[in-house]
Amino acid sequence: MRIRTLLLVFAILLVAGFVALNLDEFTRVSLLSLGFTTIQVSLGLVMLILLIAATVVFLASTLYLQSTHLIETRKHARELNIQRELADKAEASRFTELRSYLEVQALAAQKREAAVGTALNERFAQQHQALLARFEQTDNTMAAHIGQLEDRLERQSTAGHSFARETVNPPLV
């Protein structure tokens, strides 16, 4: 129990003990004035009833305040849960948006990479064809030069043989 509750119970027990010890004085009848009339009643009992009434009013007001506080606390807790759920949904939607954005960006990057890859493949194919054509042209040029050299060598060798024959066997004229 809380200390306030313990103090309240202790105070009620003290008052009850005091009344029990002085019951004769509490029940003695005396003349009381109410302002417009006078009555004969026990002053101790009137004071005891007023004390009990004040205690009941105090307890009722305390109970009312605590119950309203409890109701407000529950209301705030519900509102807080609703706000938390909204925040969670908003965060989840942001994650979903981010995921879809990243997927779109990834697809765009894949398309760009595919386009660049295709362009590079086409460019490599063109360069390969150009290089093959250049090799063929170089091969043809080399073959032509070698053919020319062979022709020259043959001409020189046939010219050299005819000159050598003339020197060895001079013509008979």
Q: State the secondary-structure class.
A: mainly alpha
Q: What is the 3D shape?
A: rod-shaped
Strand coverage percent: 5-15%
Unreliable stretches: none
Q: How far is the first residue's CA from the last residue's CA? A: 158 Å
Number of strands: 2
Number of H- or I-type helical stretches: 3
What oligomeric state best describes the polypeptide chains here?
A: single chain
Secondary-structure element pattern, one letter each: HHEEH
Rounded mean pLDDT is 88
**Helix fraction?**
over 70%
Largest sheet report: 2 strands, antiparallel
Q: Strands of the largest sheet, in order across it?
A: 1-2
Q: What is the gyration radius calculated from CA atoms? A: 61 Å
Structural summary, described in words:
The chain is mainly α and 173 residues long. The protein has a domain at 3-111. Helices cover 87% and strands 6% of the residues. The chain is built from 3 helices and 2 strands. The chain has helices at residues 3-21, 23-27, 43-168, and strands at 29-33, 38-42. It has a two-stranded antiparallel ribbon. The termini are far apart. The mean pLDDT is 88.
